[in-house]
Design brief:
two-stranded antiparallel sheet; 2 strands; 6 helices
Length: 103
């Protein structure tokens, strides 16, 4: 299945809304710190655990992204959208759904 088949316009709008919510400083990027704060709030875990998860998520996103990131360690919207699209059918779909619903 190709990427465009997985992403509907509704999915893109939802991903954009979630991205804006996680982008706390509104600079168009989600930093590890911003993701850490969101994970702490959504998953009710300690900041230390959230920091480890945030680093792992960012590393995974960037390792599997076909998009050249201009934001360094930060996550750009297109990278985020790739993850949302992949999570619709992937094994991490339940976790992503929880994060999206509670984000």
């Amino acid at each position: 299945m190709k990427f465009p088949e997985l992403v509907t316009s509704g999915c893109v709008r939802l991903a954009a809304a979630i991205f804006r919510k996680f982008d706390l400083d509104k600079n168009g990027l989600i930093s590890r710190k911003e993701l850490e704060e969101s994970i702490t709030k959504v998953c009710s875990v300690s900041p230390r655990t959230a920091g480890k998860r945030a680093s792992a998520v960012i590393n995974e996103i960037q390792a599997n992204s076909t998009i050249k990131n201009k934001g360094g360690e930060d996550v750009e919207f297109n990278e985020f959208l790739n993850v949302v699209a992949a999570s619709r059918t992937g094994t991490n779909a339940p976790e992503t759904k929880k994060l999206i619903q509670n984000g």
